Amino acid sequence: MPGPLSTAEEMELVLRHLAAVVTARVVVDAAGQVEEVRVISDGRRSPGQICRNVRSALWAHCGVDVPVDKIRVTQLAEDAHLIAPAVRPRLVSVGYQWTGGQVRTEVVLEVGERVLPGRAAAAARGAKALHSVAEATVAALRQWLGTGVHLGVEEVLTVSAADHRVVVVVVDLVFDNGRREVLCGSSLIRENDKEAVARATLDAVNRRLVMPASAQVPRDIWRKKRDVAGSPPS
After folding, report:
1. Is residue 131 classed as helix, strand or coil in its secondary structure?
2. Are residues 105 and 128 in the same domain?
3. pLDDT tens per residue, range 94-131
4. Tens digit of pLDDT for each residue in 194-229?
5. Range of the domain at 40
6. Which candidate in 102, 134, 155, 156 could, as Cys together with 170 as Cys, close a disulfide (CB 3.0–4.6 Å)?
7. Residue 26, exposed/middle/buried by CB under 10 A (0-12, 13-18, 19+)?
């Protein structure tokens, strides 16, 4: 029986856990109907298989039947590789201080033997305070990534899934050659929502951030196969 998830953010959360999916973006109209599903694949599955997996996952978990012609699969170039795949950032601490109606946040990451502090400030009100944690995490990540890659925080959301509170962070990634990607990370809120934001931001980057070894732009592959069209998958 299809589950209760239906928002674009929650559908993306489902899709990004599929095998061979690097990241996913669901575009909906004003009524919440799916207009397009954009998937970036690492090439370990064929575009046709990705389409079938996307349709099955959205139907099983969200109760949404997306026609195959609304699913766009982009494969990374064959020479794409992970940035520093053997050494990834680890969260050390999240500190914050309220001063004069503002919250000042410091996130400390560790990459190998490097300690990377990132700082941000925002109005100490609800979502803005959580957004500053993501900004501080990205500020620390910029030191690790160096030039050629530009990160920015698009949105920080708190959603409910299976009776759990989950933080979802959307990160905008722009390469020097103009190519843009949107990454999405998540983390369960256990005891501290601010730590969950930092972990969700790292989740987006640690598991999804890719950079092609050359300046090639990934090739778009559209698949409209009869075996994935029609009735929702069983």
Report:
1. helix
2. yes
3. 998 888 778 889 999 998 788 999 999 887 666 688 89
4. 999 999 999 888 755 543 333 333 333 333 333 333
5. 8-76+218-228
6. 155
7. buried
pTM attached to this predicted model: 0.55
User: By C-alpha distance, which of 66, 62, 2 is closest to 34?
Assistant: 66
Residue at token pair 């973006």: 25
Both 204 and 186 in a single domain? yes
CA dist list (Å): 198 to 8, 83, 102, 105, 160: 22, 19, 19, 11, 18
Q: In terms of domains, do 97 and 201 share one? A: yes
Q: Are residues 116 and 28 in the same domain?
A: no
Are the CB atoms for 26 and 13 separated by under 8 Å? Answer: no
Q: Are residues 93 and 31 in the same domain?
A: no
Helix (H) or strand (E) holding 94: strand 90-99
The pair of three-digit structure tokens given for residue 112, joined into one six-digit string: 């190998």
Pairing mode of beta strands 21-28, 210-212 = unpaired
